[in-house]
Amino acid sequence: EMAPFANHVTREILGHRRRVHSVAWNCAGRKLASASVDTTARVYDVERGGVHSGRDVELKGHGDSVDQVAWDPVSPDRLATISADKTLRLWDVRSGGSPIATINLGDENINLSWTKDGSQIAVGNRNDLFHFIDAKTHKVTHTTSKFPYQVNGACWNETGDEFVVTTADGFAQVLSFPDLKPLRQMRGHTSSVYAMALDKVNDRWAFGGADAGVSVWDHHDSVCVGVVDRLNAPVRAVAFSHDGKFLASGGDDPVIDVADADVDGGATFSAVTQIQLKSVLHVSS
User: Fold this and answer.
1) pLDDT of res. 51
2) Sign of the C-alpha dihedral, residues 273, 275, 276, 279?
C-alpha cells in the first residue's frame, strides 16, 4: 500500500496581482476561492481545469483589501467576503462577478464564519466585537459589545450551540450561543492564537499560534489530545482533511506540515510529509 502523499503533486495558481490573504474550498471540494490585497476575490473551477481554463470568476466590488473568504456550508455556489472597506459582501458565482448583497458594518473586518446550516454569518472586527447577519435577509440581527480580550478568529461548533473565539492571550474561549456566555477555555499557547480549524468527524479543534505550535483539543472535554511542534515560526493556517485523518499546518515557515491525525490509528500527530513552498504562507483556509 502506497504511503499517503507519497506522490503528491503541487500546482501554482496565478490570478491575483498582489498578496493572497485567504483561501477556501466550497462544500463540494470542487471550487477554490481566494481573497487578495488587490481588492478582488477569485473562484477557480479546479475540477474542470480551472486555472487559465476560462472558468475562473473574478469577484469585483470591494474598495480595499479583501481579507477573508468563506463559502456557505450548504451551497457550492454562494460565498462571503470581508474587507478593509468595512463591508461584508455575498456572492453567487452562477450570477457572475458582482455581489448579490453588500452589508456595511462600520469598521475594518478581520474574521468571518458561517453556521453549519448557512443561515447566519458572524463577522468580527478590529474593535473586538461581532456582527451577526441573517444570510437570507442580509440584515444585522445582533451586534455584541467589545470583548474583554483581543479576538483573532471565530467559528461555530458543529451543532451551532457554541461559538469559539481565539485570542491574543494564548487561549480559545468557548461561548454558549446565542447568548454568548463563557463556558470553558482551551489554553495551550504562550502567545497569540492565529488559526483554528474544526474536525467535524471527530469533534476536535486545532489551533495554531505565534509560538510556532499547533495544539489539538477534544471539543466536549476541552482536553488537549495532541501537539505539532515541528514548525519554527508563527502558524497562521491549520486545516483538517475532510475525513479528519490528516492535519495540515503552515505559516511563516516555507513548508506545510502534514500530520497523522487518524483517531483509528492512534492519532500520533507525527509527520506524514512536509511540503516545500516557494514562499511563506500568508493565507488561512
Assistant:
1) 52
2) negative
